[in-house]
Write a structure and sequence with these properties.
Shape: globular
Number of strands: 13
Bound molecules: arginine
Largest sheet: 4 strands, parallel
Radius of gyration: 29 Å
Length: 566
């Protein structure tokens, strides 16, 4: 019997006794709770909602039901105030859960739910010639983890990097490069130097408005295919992309497509035409807009000079993706500050008559601040992601030198732990929460951190190595204490946790689960002699193995490596 069947047994015991209440079996099932404190049983049924109908106090009802109930499928059933507490056959559930995990291995928690339907993820999407910000890091790691979650739920995923590789800022960049830049500098360190030129432009353009005129001219040249402008654009783009790819490699994230904004240049006219055909375009002060009613500002499709905008490109991109991938859902992992933009996108597609507009979803996330202040490229107040990763790996290396100086592959482990710390830190908070970034906080190796979970996994692996562990099916436990049972209930929850994380588009559900399982395991470890030759030795080792499997899989879903030793 696994934990799901145990819950069904609770329902099946209650159904005949509650016949007169007209509650359906499903309603009864949904009322069953899991008590916070395991001493109150594994499941509880509250009786408040029956009081009115049965004209009795909830306490009396609980006692009466317990008297009538078939208790064969439980070790104990008791009335406690307005609750009926059920103690399941823990021996059987332990045996079944552990064996299920050993057989499934890394596939434990997989479900058929998605039926191979496609989910498109628009993620990362940094802007060319600018450093990848902490916001882009959030988008990258949240998107990557969501992709892993949906794969585990049997969805196909398409990870698209919608690069910001078009727009008037390229005119500014060209002007700045030609005035203050050098080829040699860009080659040496493209992002830093391009960024420097850009910031300089913005420091000077208030007093020298002629700079803006020049920038507009260069962007026009680019739009018209001028060879020099095109060459510069391609060069900025490829140098930036090389730098981004280094970061993606560090993070272990890959993409199915790098089609950015520029890819849609030749698809603008179709979108404008479609909007015109559907009579949705209105002239407004020389610009062309789509009116979206009282609740949303109109979507500006074309500026008075004929230039298309961010949303025009997103309309074209949405249409292209629907045609190319026939997606079931299209998720945009982008900061909350773009909420209105995505509402406009969705509303415009709906007005165009596309019923799939409902499948467009903005998966928003909170802002990262530094010292309480907003980060901004223009002002030069940025946290450089590459620097963060480097510092974090350095700290990891120091820790390893102190704790385990003889460890093999120290460099690899330092990398896994340092990068894992940053990724985990980013994913453990609810995605919509804002948080202030402090490096010391991120790379702390105790408390609620990635390295803590990684360390718990490595500890489990070391026990198994010491025991020369061999898989062998679990029998019924000779004895079963509360610490063991606490792990079994955590392990049994994993498949549900993955589903919940998918439904809420919330990797933090997995991160919090992993922290909890690690804590439960460390508590068990502190109170149990695992390697003692007695009747339950194999069971304990199987338990440790199951913990290792599930911790590793939870970390992998988050995009964090789980070294065997650290
Ligand atoms: N490049 C944009 C930015 O950095 C994010 C793009 C998000 N994706 C999209 N399809 N609009 O703000």
């Amino acid at each position: 019997m696994d934990i799901k069947q145990a819950k069904q047994a609770v329902r099946d015991a209650l159904v005949p006794v509650l016949k007169s209440t007209q509650l359906t079996a499903d309603e009864i099932f949904n009322l069953i709770e899991v008590p916070k404190n395991a001493r109150m049983g594994d499941f509880a049924f509250p009786t408040f909602q029956l009081a009115k109908q049965l004209h009795q106090s909830p306490v009396n009802i609980a006692q009466e039901i317990v008297g009538k109930l078939d208790q064969a499928a439980f070790t104990k059933v008791e009335a406690k105030g307005p609750y009926i507490n059920f103690f399941v056959l823990r021996d059987q559930v332990t045996q079944t859960t552990l064996n299920d995990i050993l057989v499934a291995g890394e596939n434990y928690g997989f479900s058929q739910q998605g039926q191979q339907k496609t989910i498109v993820l628009d993620m990362s999407s940094p802007n060319i010639a600018k450093p990848m910000s902490m916001g882009h890091l959030r988008s990258t790691v949240i998107g990557n983890s969501l992709s892993n979650i949906f794969n585990k739920l049997n969805y196909k995923t398409v990870k698209i990097n919608h690069l910001g590789d078009w727009g008037t800022q390229f005119g500014k960049l060209m002007v700045a490069y030609k005035k203050w830049g050098s080829e040699e500098e860009v080659k040496r360190d493209p992002i830093t130097n391009l960024q420097r030129y850009y910031v300089k432009f913005h420091q000077l353009d208030k007093e020298h408005p002629e700079l803006d005129d020049e920038a507009r001219e260069w962007f026009k040249k680019l739009e018209n295919g001028d060879p020099e402008a095109t060459h510069l654009w391609e060069w900025f783009r490829s140098e930036s992309l090389k730098a981004f790819e280094q970061v993606y490699e560090e993070l272990g994230v890959d993409f199915d497509s790098f089609k950015g904004e520029a890819f849609y240049n030749d698809k603008m006219s179709e979108i404008v035409q479609l909007l015109e055909d559907k009579n949705l375009l209105q002239a407004s002060q020389g610009a062309e807009i789509v009116d979206l009613g009282d609740d949303l500002p109109p979507a500006m499709i074309k500026k008075s000079d004929g230039a298309t905008l961010y949303i025009t490109r997103d309309l074209a991109a949405a249409l292209y993706r629907k045609r190319t991938y026939d997606f079931d859902k299209a998720l945009y992992v982008v900061g909350s500050e773009q909420s209105i933009h995505f509402e406009q996108l969705k509303a415009t597609l709906a007005k165009m008559g596309y019923d799939w507009a409902k499948d467009i979803e903005h998966v928003k996330f909170g802002l990262i601040t530094s010292g309480g202040k907003k980060l901004s490229t223009r002002s030069g107040r940025v946290i450089l992601l590459e620097q963060v990763l480097r510092d974090s790996v350095k700290l990891a290396r120091q820790q390893i030198e102190e704790k385990n100086p003889t460890l093999a592959n120290k460099e690899q482990v330092a990398h896994d732990v340092g990068v894992g710390a940053v990724v985990f830190h980013d994913l453990k908070n609810n995605r919509t929460d804002n948080f202030d970034f402090q490096l010391e906080e991120v790379v702390r190796f105790e408390g609620e951190t990635g390295p803590y979970v990684q360390y718990s996994h490595a500890r489990a692996m070391s026990i198994l190595r010491k025991a020369n562990y061999q898989v062998e099916a679990t029998g019924l436990p000779a004895a079963l204490d509360d610490n063991t049972w606490a792990i079994v209930t955590d392990l049994a929850k994993f498949p549900q946790v993955v589903q919940q994380a998918g439904m809420q588009r919330e990797p933090s559900v997995i991160a919090k689960y992993a922290l909890h399982l690690a804590k439960t395991f460390n508590h068990y470890y502190a109170h149990t002699k695992i390697l003692v030759e007695d009747a339950d030795l194999q069971l304990r080792l199987n338990l440790v193995q199951a913990v290792a499997i599930v911790l590793k899989e939870a970390l992998n879903i988050l995009g964090v490596a789980a070294p065997d030793e650290m």
